Amino acid sequence: MTNTAGQTVGGFLEALASDAPTPGGGAAAGVAGAAGAALISMVARLTMGKEAYASVDGRMRELAEQADAARLAFLDLADRDASAFDGVMAAFKMPKDTDEQKAVRSAAIQAGYEDAASVPLECLRKAVDTMSLAVEATADGNSQAASDGVSAAAELLCAALCAAANVEINAAALKDLAKREALLGEVASLRSRAEASLREAQDAFLVRLSS
């Protein structure tokens, strides 16, 4: 299994730039999400212990803890995404000489695509949930770090959009139309929420600039 957290940035980008099918866009979504979560932690820690922000000190400590946990979760999702698509590739390599083998192979491919869609969907959900922390960090954190807060929201939107695309491309390969439509419907809803959260963070940033 890939260990994204243990790689250098350069090493991860080299792997991403290679002709290997993984890591790909789903792993990139996880890394973008981790970067967004890290920026939230940064804003929170630049706020904690400051007399001017004593009223939000406790909440910023909670924010840092939640964002730290999200960062680790995103990195885990990056690794799981690569492993999930490796499962699809392995299914395509299964024997198909007999009708029975073809049926088993086809079922494995469908299961692989379903799994490959489920991981980026989890990343998408996590990105949308974490964006609320970015909005809060931008609105209530150290005003001198407001740009980092809105940058966190932008990174998380990137994670959401990349994850959404990876759900969609895997869902498109599903023969079960009910499962496909359920996935695509949730993706559309989550994408809309993510875009709304970015606008909220941008509005909060403009307020901090003018204060």
Structure report:
This protein is mainly α and 211 residues long. The chain contains six helices and no strands.
Helix vs. strand class? mainly alpha
Average pLDDT number: 95
Q: Let me know the largest β-sheet.
A: none
**What is the ordering of alpha helices and beta strands?**
HHHHHH
Number of helices: 6
How many runs of DSSP E, i.e. beta strands? 0
User: Mind telling me the C-alpha Rg?
Assistant: 20 Å
Distance between the termini: 48 Å
Shape: elongated
Task: List the uncertain runs.
Answer: none
Beta fraction: under 5%
Q: Helix share of residues? A: over 70%
Summarize this structure briefly.
Helices cover 81% and strands 0% of the residues. By secondary structure, it is mainly α.
SSE layout and pairing:
Elements (H helix, E strand, L loop, with lengths): L8 H9 L7 H23 L9 H36 L6 H42 L5 H26 L5 H34 L1
Which key features would you list for this structure?
single chain; 211 residues; mainly alpha; 6 helices
